[in-house]
Each structure stands twice: as C-alpha cells, then as structure tokens.
From TrEMBL:
Listed Gene3D superfamilies: Nucleic acid-binding proteins
Phylogenetic placement of the source organism: Archaea, Methanobacteriati, Methanobacteriota, Stenosarchaea group, Halobacteria
Renumbered residue ranges of the record's region Disordered: 1-20, 39-64
GO biological process: double-strand break repair via homologous recombination; response to ionizing radiation
PANTHER family: OB FOLD NUCLEIC ACID BINDING PROTEIN-RELATED, REPLICATION FACTOR-A PROTEIN 1
Protein name per its UniProtKB record: Replication factor A
Organism (species): Haloterrigena salina JCM 13891
Length: 427
C-alpha cells in the first residue's frame, strides 16, 4: 500500500480529514517510524478506542512513575542536545533533553534522531520509562512513534522559561542536558588524559558567571575557551565528577567568543550543613559550624612520592614500600546542628590553625618522639570553636567532605552560638 492508501484507510476509520492524517503519517515515516506503528499512533492520537489493545495509555507527565513500562505523552520539548556515548562497545549519538506538559517535566533520551527542537510540541507514543536516580525518565527509541503537533501546548511559565536551555551556573545540577551558558573562563589548563581511545588532549578548569563558579571539562579543546575571556556555550551537559557537578563541553557543543565582560559572582552561597549535604555536592559553598573533632590522619602525615596519597608506616596502598614526603593536613568535623561534614585543610591552612610551619611540626614530633602530638596541638586549638569555611563540597558513599579554600574562626559571638548549637542538638 502507498502512503496515500494508508491515509485513506485511517481517515475513513477515524472519521477525520484525510489530508491531515496523511501529513501526520508522512511526518512519522520520515522519522523512520514503521508505517504500522505510525498508523497505531495516529489511531491513538485521533481517539480510536478500538485499537487500544495493549497500547500504552496517555499520561500526564506528573503521573509517570518508574513503574510504568511504556507511556504515551504529549509535551513541549524544553531542551534537546546531541551527545556521543559508548554503548555496548560502539559509539552512538543520542539526543537528550527535557519535556514538559501542564503538570510537570521529565528528562528524555532519544536513541534515534527524531529531529526534536526546543519549543516543539510532540506526542511520543509508546515511550519507554526507566528509572534514573530514583526519578522516571523517558526512552524514545525504535518502538516509539513520534509526531509533531501543530497546536503548541500551554505549559507553566517556569517551564516555558527553560525552553532553549539558557541557564546560570548556580542553577545547574548533575544530569542537566542541552544547557546553554554564558561564562568567563576563570581557570583553564590543557591536559593529556588516558581516554577511551588512547591518549587525548582536553581542557579543564573553572567557569564563572554572575551566579557563581563551576569546574568544566572541554573534551574537544575549543580555542575560544583556551583563549580565556567570555564565551557562550550551547549544548553542554552536567555530569558529576568527584562528587561535584561539572560542565561538560563536547564535540557537539557550540562555543562562541562573547564581546562582553562577565562579572564572576564573588559570593558563594551560605547554607546550613544539612541542606548543603542534601544537594549532593556544590562547587562553591560557605558553611558555618563548630569544629567538634579532629579526625585520625590529621597533623603531620606522609605522602607517597609517586601518587601523593597519604601513606601509613611507609606503605603506599598502590606503590608498597616508599620513602614518604612529610606534609601537613587537617580533617576536622564541622557540625552546625543540622548536619556534619569533614573539612579538609591543605598544608597552608593547617599551618594557620597549628600556628607553626612543617619544620616546627617535625621538630615537635622529634622532641616528643611521636608525630601524633601535632594533631593533638591542632585539636587543642580548634575543637569547640566556631568556624566559617568556604570550599568545594562533595558527597559520596564515604560521607560529605569539604575541600577548604578558606577556614576562619567565626566572628559571631561564640557563647551565643554555642548556646544555640546546644539547644538545637538537644532538641
Ligand atoms: Zn603511591
């Protein structure tokens, strides 16, 4: 049968205009939807209840749960971006983004190029639902019939603002796809890494905008980024790296130099510890709390000369017997009554709280014939005091860690804070 006959067939079955059905059918077939599936999807679209046998029901986005096997959804494409992934040994180009209707929004992955663009209203018939991080996500693939609606769907303003994907760094979260940002390159270095196809050069560093800063990786070095200055990046995605969201700029991203200055927001967000930990990781955060303990592995420590990790009794877990390098570090537990984090201080910040240099620490350890005395001194100096810490928060299965950039005794009235703290703890 020709497309025309199929259309005739459908139009008379459904009692609708043949030309309308034909253009929908053509649309679907152009996107490689098998004609039988396309017809089924149009039967559903034009409301023929008789073909419902086993066909997934239409659902509002807010109603979709990870338990749904397949659903039919009508929504507005908020974002759509290409990305290359390696799946079962070969590279695939997939399209990812978000879809919204009147009730909610959902992430999708399209395994075929359906030609989705931001702003399109689509109906995805027989879309698969899978769970990702506890949330439902749509899989649009071979068995999905996709049609473009002529009438655009009205969606809430908050979603409409997302169309196109323009975003501020502070609002980006792990898992965001097809985002556009306008940023200043704050730090950038070229590195050689062992990629999945051997050695490859990448750029990594830090982007900043009015809202804050985030680390980035540019997998296909863009000269506009390496030159520094301000750039607009389209179709980037956000992935977690070492517990912190990171902007990924891929070969499918567009990078253009901007002819304007971007002021990088100097103020990091100040949050409750509990609230910060629940975000799962923040690049730049400020926390205020009491130092309640100094953990083992603080004070005078030794690192492996090969991998720079901390060693125990001259033994590196990877490199065996090594001649360790002396270093200073603190792992302090900071608690504000809403939660606790381990704050890691580097050698310089450790010197500040210790009140001496690495040489002083070595001297003290020699005299006491025990290097633990250095940690004890630090403990005496900081435990029970309140600190304002700023740095990178990461959260993983081992707990919440803040890689501190600054660690200062809080200027607030310590007695009042202590009283409030005790009240919260006992509450
Ligand atoms: Zn080592």
């Amino acid at each position: 049968m020709e497309l025309d006959d199929h259309a005739e067939d459908l139009a008379s079955d459904l009692g609708v205009d043949k030309e309308e059905v034909k253009s929908d059918l053509q649309n679907l077939v152009e996107y490689s939807v098998p004609v039988d599936e396309a017809k089924q999807s149009l039967r559903r679209k034009y409301g023929d209840g008789s073909s419902g046998g086993g066909a997934p029901s239409s659902k509002d986005i807010a109603e979709i749960t990870p338990e749904d096997g397949n659903v039919t959804v009508t929504g507005v494409v908020l974002t759509s971006g290409k990305r290359s992934i390696r799946y079962q040994g070969s590279d695939h180009v997939i399209v990812e983004g978000r879809l919204a209707d009147e009730t909610g929004a959902i992430d999708y992955t399209a395994w075929e190029d359906f030609g989705l663009s931001a702003g399109d209203t689509i109906t995805a018939g027989n879309a698969g639902v899978r769970e990702w991080d506890g949330e439902p996500e749509l899989n649009l693939g071979e068995s999905t019939s996709l049609s473009f609606e002529d009438d655009s769907l009205d969606i809430p303003a908050a979603y409409a603002d997302e169309i196109g994907g323009d975003a501020q760094l502070a609002n980006l979260q792990t898992g965001d796809r097809a985002v556009n940002v306008e940023v200043a390159v704050v730090e950038c270095e070229r590195r050689t890494i062992d990629g999945r196809d051997g050695e490859t050069e990448i750029l990594s560093g830090v982007f900043g905008d009015e809202s804050g800063r985030l680390p980035f990786t540019n997998w296909d070095p863009a000269p506009e980024i390496e030159d520094g200055g301000a750039v607009r990046i389209e179709n980037a995605y956000v992935q977690e790296f070492r517990g912190v969201p990171e902007v990924n700029v891929s070969e499918f991203s567009t990078v253009t130099a901007l002819d304007r200055e971007i002021e990088v927001g100097a103020n990091s967000t100040t949050m409750d510890v509990g609230e910060a930990v629940r975000t799962g990781g923040i690049y730049d955060v400020e926390l205020v709390g009491n130092a309640i303990a100094v953990r083992d592995g603080s004070g005078l420590i030794q690192r492996c000369p090969e991998c720079y990790r901390v060693i125990q009794k001259g033994q590196c877990r990877t490199h065996g017997d090594v001649d360790g390098i002396d270093d200073l570090r603190v792992k302090a537990i900071l608690d504000d009554g809403t939660g606790a984090v381990t704050v890691v201080l580097d050698d310089e910040l450790t010197e500040d709280v210790y009140g001496g240099t690495l040489d002083d620490a070595l001297e003290q350890a020699r005299e006491a014939m025990d290097q633990e005395v250095v940690a004890d001194t630090i403990r005496e100096h900081i435990v029970g005091k309140e600190y304002r810490v700023r740095g990178h928060l990461s959260v993983d299965e081992y707990g919440a860690n803040v890689d501190a950039e600054s660690f200062e005794e809080s200027a607030d009235d310590p007695e009042a804070r202590a009283a409030a703290f005790l009240e919260e703890v006992s509450a």
